[in-house]
Amino acid sequence: MFRRTLLLALPSLALAGCVGMSPGTEQPTIVFFNADSAALDETAVGLLRSVATRAARRPEAPVRVLGFAGPTGGQAFNTALSRARAEHVATLLTEAGVARSRIRVGSRGPVPFEMAEQESRRVEIRIGE
User: Within a domain: residue 62?
Assistant: First the structure.
């Protein structure tokens, strides 16, 4: 079975008003996951290292990590999966040099059916929010 992890920084969503941004907040970096998985490949880990480098330039800014899951499956499973995804990203950011005390982890569980399933399996990382 071919598995891949998609990575994306989404300035177009922020510009279109789809992602709310506070002043002093960078555009979010978004890491996509495979279905039913909280694992990331080496490409994703490299992207998180670049996020850690950006975070190092703003040592006073908090880092918000927010996990999501797809709409299929039970509420409890998807809530736990979205949290596991966010915690995994937070751990990798910490290993890349971001102080754990700066990282705020949250999860939203399953997202509405209107969103494409691939888009719902994600973690958003924001610096300065």
Answer: yes
